[in-house]
Amino acid sequence: MVEDLRRALAAAGGGNVIVVGVGNTTRGDDGVGPAVVEELRGTAVAALDVGDAPERYLGPITESGAQVVLFVDAVDFGGGAGEAVLLEEQEVPRQSCVTHRSALGLVMRYVREQAGQRSLLIGVQPASIAPGSAMTPPVRRAAKGIAAAVSEALGTAPTCSGSGSGPAETTEEPPAGAGGECGQR
Question: What is the pTM of this model?
């Protein structure tokens, strides 16, 4: 995954990257995107938890200054639980949507057309997205591995001490912008 990410980010021209975690934490493995954002807390990686409504965060995403938007979401692609794939915008269906209000492919297209940002998706195969279920161990391990791979691919390391707070934002309401107290890449 690290090498795939490095290649994709290099092909996108490198530059600033924001990780956008998509998912509903009350639906088991669908919460993998927000889990990755939480794992990135305390690193120099800009990350934003958008819950299950990424369309509500188009302003902060397009105004982030990032050249690349790296979405992370649960995607049923027929793999084993916790398996991850890296998809280009054109590989993401624009109409299908299981747990989100808007199809992620449409959101990805919007950020490209409105802000010129390249969008990529790390899709993680869920085992269960049943309401009220907990995240399964394979998907929890995948979230930790993806956060580590993103940090490694971007050449970042933890930069905050003490509280563990960092640029990762977790919020129910759209924030004024992405970022935080730690240095950003």
Answer: 0.81
